[in-house]
Amino acid sequence: VQKLNLKLVTHQKSYKEELLLNLRELELSAGDVLEIYHPDPRIYPRRRYPRLLLQVPNLAAKEESVVQKDSISVEQSIAVQFGLQTYQYVSVTKVVPEKVSLQLLELTFKDQYLNRSDMWRFSQSLMSTVVYKNKTVEFCSQTVRCQVYDMWSQGSRVACGYVSEDTKVVYRSSTSRFYLFIQMSSEMWEFDHYGDLYFEKAVSGFLTELFDKWKLMNTNHEVTIVLFSRSFYPTARSMSQFPEDMKPFIQQDPLGRFFQDFYRVAVQNERHEDWSCVLRTLRQLFYHY
């Protein structure tokens, strides 16, 4: 099969398969990888929508009868994501899987625990399949569920591709446990050459961008933030110079200087959709540190 022009229709998620077509009439077999796109650039601007790759499923005769021989049916949300217009003709081309294979596949999971064994089995189950951006992939009777986050092929980011034996699969958790330590050194009260306080750059810059990125990625991390600092006692020459109640907390570095570490837990094991309240708390602690 070189290229077919078929009328596009859509179906709901109630159907098990993402792609429905008449295999016998179109001379296709289960497992074939198809590239689907609008041949008319006025309908399908390539700069906005990438071409869709889907794999021909093993359809039962009842499922094949749903679609006419000159039509192809794509699950509705997929058609919307790739800009495919219903009841318009699309070009359907059978492609060689190796030419569209992925170099890297990133999967995200949430509110689940996956060990190394689970990841390896999951990766094996994805072999010889086609994935696309935001696709939900499941394993072991839906007990493990991940979402396709990013894909790379031939050094470029792509919207869909074929998972081969050489594809590297990376798993990223959206519900990790984070410990953020902010060192409250003397530089935090100094200004840079633009007149910005270094502490404000840490809070309004780094942390704000980090939390905004988490919100964009719909993560649900559990965060602990600790402020810490180290105070040196340059005039101390021996441990006997310190009061008895301080001696258990006094330490000495390799240079012979005596110091004491201080910690302040600002946030402990918290999850927020809006982290602005945490930023306000950090600013208040800075003023009284």
Topology:
Blueprint (H helix, E strand, L loop, with lengths): L3 E8 L7 E2 L2 H4 L6 E5 L14 E4 L5 H4 L6 E5 H6 L7 E7 L8 E6 L6 H11 L2 E4 L3 E4 L4 E10 L2 E2 L2 E4 L4 E6 L3 E7 L14 H19 L5 E12 L17 E2 L5 E13 L5 H12 L2
Parallel strand pairs: 1-5, 7-13, 14-15
Antiparallel strand pairs: 1-6, 2-5, 3-4, 3-6, 7-10, 8-12, 9-10, 10-11, 15-17, 16-17
Keywords, please?
289 residues, alpha+beta, Barwin-like endoglucanases, Vcp-like ATPase, Chain A, domain 2, 6-stranded mixed sheet, 5-stranded mixed sheet, 17 strands
Can you put this structure into words, describing what you see?
This protein has 289 residues and is of the alpha+beta class. It folds into 3 domains: 4-95, Barwin-like endoglucanases (Beta Barrel); 99-173, Vcp-like ATPase, Chain A, domain 2, CATH 3.10.330.10; 177-287, no CATH class. Helix content is 19%, strand content 35%. It has helices spanning 23-26, 61-64, 76-81, 116-126, 198-216, 276-287; strands at residues 4-11, 19-20, 33-37, 52-55, 71-75, 89-95, 104-109, 129-132, 136-139, 144-153, 156-157, 160-163, 168-173, 177-183, 222-233, 251-252, 258-270. The strands form 4 sheets. A 6-stranded mixed beta sheet has the order 2-5-1-6-3-4. Strands 7, 9, 10, 11 and 13 form a 5-stranded mixed beta sheet that branches. The longest helix is centred in the last third of the chain and has 19 residues, at 198-216.
